[in-house]
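INPUT
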Amino acid sequence: MVVEILAVGTELLLGNIANTNAQYLSQKCAVLGFSVYHHGVVGDNEERMTAAIKEALGRSDVLILTGGLGPTEDDMTKEVCAKVMGFELAEDPHTRERIESYFKRTGRTNITKNNWKQAVVPVGSRVLDNHNGTAPGLILEKDGKTAVLLPGPPNELKPLFSEQVAPYLHSLQPETIYSQMVKVCGPGESAVETAVLDLIDAQTNPTIATYAKTGETHLRVTAKAENEEQAKKLVKPVVKELKKRFGADIYSTSEEESLEDVVVKLLKKYKLTVTTAESMTGGMLASRLVNVPGASECFHEGFVTYSNKAKRKVLDVSKATLKKYGAVSEQTAKEMAKGGVFASDSDICVAVTGFAGPEDTKEEPKGLAYISCYIGNEVVVREFHFTGNRMKIREQAVVRALDLLRRCILERCKNEK
Amino acid sequence: MVVEILAVGTELLLGNIANTNAQYLSQKCAVLGFSVYHHGVVGDNEERMTAAIKEALGRSDVLILTGGLGPTEDDMTKEVCAKVMGFELAEDPHTRERIESYFKRTGRTNITKNNWKQAVVPVGSRVLDNHNGTAPGLILEKDGKTAVLLPGPPNELKPLFSEQVAPYLHSLQPETIYSQMVKVCGPGESAVETAVLDLIDAQTNPTIATYAKTGETHLRVTAKAENEEQAKKLVKPVVKELKKRFGADIYSTSEEESLEDVVVKLLKKYKLTVTTAESMTGGMLASRLVNVPGASECFHEGFVTYSNKAKRKVLDVSKATLKKYGAVSEQTAKEMAKGGVFASDSDICVAVTGFAGPEDTKEEPKGLAYISCYIGNEVVVREFHFTGNRMKIREQAVVRALDLLRRCILERCKNEK
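OUTPUT
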């Protein structure tokens, strides 16, 4: 079955807010096994809203409308939708009661006449009690089409959806969708794409979709089946094949797991501590590690050595190295990593030095970076040429530094259990 | 004139990402004086994309398409849009050259055949060079309708829009729109809104729009007039009034200028150097300073002292203080800032210690943070209670730390010229 999401609100069309409701609802619908082919946003305008609702109901089985259920004049989603689908409107005593008790509960006294507008519902619709606001959710069914109306505020929309709309939708949809993520770091997006082109061309069920992230590519394998168990059966061999093709370039096959999650997990597993020595990234690498709750177990301190003086003083990079090879060099990167280990007595140090721009200089082309990892008295260093603006270059450097750290730990500890 | 925004991408329909491009483009279009009545999202599907493009071009003057310009199989926005509008496709030698040099610059050697798909453009379209990626932006004009095609990644889309599309759109619009930004840090969004409610209610031309950012609120004053000079005349008194109302809470009235830009500018102006001592923010504060090109002049090194041991060793925070008051305390924050100044011989140190969660603990409620600034042998410390998830709490702490630094410099140097 096909679900369509139509958000109502001028604040979206003015760019005051992003349409995060559509993202939330799409995720939930995907899990429930519904296909979502269209998102739409329209303003509080009767003519345009009427056209948008008609069109959506024409091509989709279920239309989820968000927003425009407030008490004010220009809130008209309920009225327009009822008109389009041919429902009468009447006050619902139960809802009026609920709104009254809601006001009592929240100590609201200045109740204006227009508040009771929210107690008016399409006759014959299902009313979904909203425990976090006044506007009820509504389900309108007619001629095999369904419209679900939800209030715009996420703190009202989300509980209404998960507690009342999701079970309703599930009852409409026997099919289940199961998808698994395969996260690749190293090869570029088009290289990843080329490596799986034959699988994508041959795909029917499961399907493979690729998503480019900064410094990473994610592959989502999605299968439809009668139940989750069968869907998993369909996904498994494809994921196995992807693992065969990408090997160590895959850092995770979990939806939630980020690159820093994986790194911190490995550090904990092998009881290792890490420190960071950052020049170009200026603390971004450390802060990525600290994103992970409980990182304190394996990360105690980090160094931001932006000036050459700081590299010498804090990391003991030799004056001669900086003079001969420059701050952005393999040699400096190596000495930074080594120095970081000794300055912090951590087991590992990842160091990043590079030139993020904004402009090229004679000595250092914008995007050139050296990332090194000192582990077990050995130091590995890699040269990179990143592109994009200053921020993008630094973000890519951080991803590659985390990935180098991941690979060095795996290489170092591959014989341990 | 009416602009419509149509995003292409299955990742949006699956809810993997929110449509932040639509928000960005809507804001920019509003500033340029265009009306936006519809946002749409459609997948990488020829039939549905064709229908969506036809419909959008039927009701709007300008259609901005985002995404689906990649090198992969399912990227087809360019092909479908050209077909709908009746454009032939041919390889553009200039674009092929640009892509080749882009690969050279980025040291990419594994160039696959599908990369050259991105050098193919609609014959007669304007090609917009993309300096942050391979896919060019495109402008197609026919029968009084315009389609603007932009790559999906925000770091490619935003510079393409601001540098090349915005001036083009401006040329389509006879009326001049002039707007000025007033950036406020300190009071919360609703406090800011309440403070200007009377102005917003009374507004016609110019208008005032408020945008909530993490830890900041931006106010945009926009006027329409025959020419820029007249528009500026309309904006000026309103901005003056806002300055009167918010005073030192305003850190900038420039569109481009970020909080870290202002801080670095002040540091340079007064020839001061700063260092950072971070616990909870784990390097985020330092990396915000390093966002600013030329920050090296006033920022040489920073400390990430995540463990108590590191706070003692690196920043000389006393064991007694940590034992008596704990790591998240006014006293520890003060000692961190003082220690940072002496460890780095910088003029100033900003220190952040707090508890970002994910969960409350007995000792430290999630969101509690102390931010201190040591300058000229004086240390200022502030207590904060942030809300939101771990990342949101850390982001707010970074903004408030930069703002405290800004205010301390201004206070300290207010008598200098």
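end of record. The first helix of chain B runs from residue 10 to 13.
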